Amino acid sequence: MIDKGKYFGFTCDDIDAYQSDIKLMNQFSNDASEQMKIAIDSNVLDTVSTSSDLVAANKGATAGAISSSYNLGASGAPVQITKTNVLEYIIDCGSILDEQNVPESGRWMVIPSWFANLIKKSDLKDASMTGEGTSVLRNGRIGMIDRFTLYLSNNLYSATDGSFTAYYCLFGTNAAITFASQMTKMETLRAESTFGDLVRGLNVYGFKIIKPEALGLLYCRK
Q: What is the domain count for the chain?
């Protein structure tokens, strides 16, 4: 269901445009598009991370639909991620989906930048551990770990838990969430309060968790 929307608007002053060697309209439009993408990304991650649709077996201190033996962190006790255990927790997340009989194809995980930093400092810095010809320290790419394609985002939902900042790292498959987005309006008008062009655009979108068992949450801290 398309039930949300974000818009942008900016004025490109005639004097600035005339005196500048840079195509300001294009530059401002690109920046507006990027800021809108960040806003939508944050909204989706925040809403999904705190959704009541997340199944109990795919999060918390006793996660696992069959074993209930995986600690993915809970309120008051986020799991601490270090360069020593970071790979173990990623593998545990994979096992959570395995116990839900979730297909291996299309698996993904969204992590904050500090999480990616610890991965690069883990055993994966040795190229022979990954089967790749070049270490992640050389190419900077994390790629795939235990069937998960990892995506780095600074827009993950986070909260203060005691003296720590806890992050809601989502993982799942492409079948877990449906998302649709469309730029429905883009127009350029003459500004009323100055000599220049007013550019504005409207992007409508919607998303929904459609397969909760294919979605999980790692509640962690650095």
A: 1
Identity of the residue numbered 33: S
User: What pTM, to 2 d.p., does this model score?
Assistant: 0.76
Residue 117: both structure tokens together: 């930093």
Q: Provide the residue range defining the domain that includes 199.
A: 4-221
Residues contacting 70, CB < 8 A, separation 6+: 62, 63, 64, 92, 95, 96
State the number of CA atoms in the 13 A half-sphere of 210 facing the CB. Answer: 10
Helix (H, G, I), strand (E, B) or coil at 148: strand
Question: Each residue's pLDDT tens digit in the chain (222 positions)?
Answer: 677 777 666 666 665 554 454 465 566 566 666 777 788 888 889 999 999 999 999 999 999 999 999 999 999 999 999 999 999 999 999 999 999 999 999 999 999 999 999 988 887 765 444 445 555 544 445 778 889 989 989 999 999 999 999 999 999 999 999 888 776 666 676 766 676 777 777 778 888 999 999 999 999 999
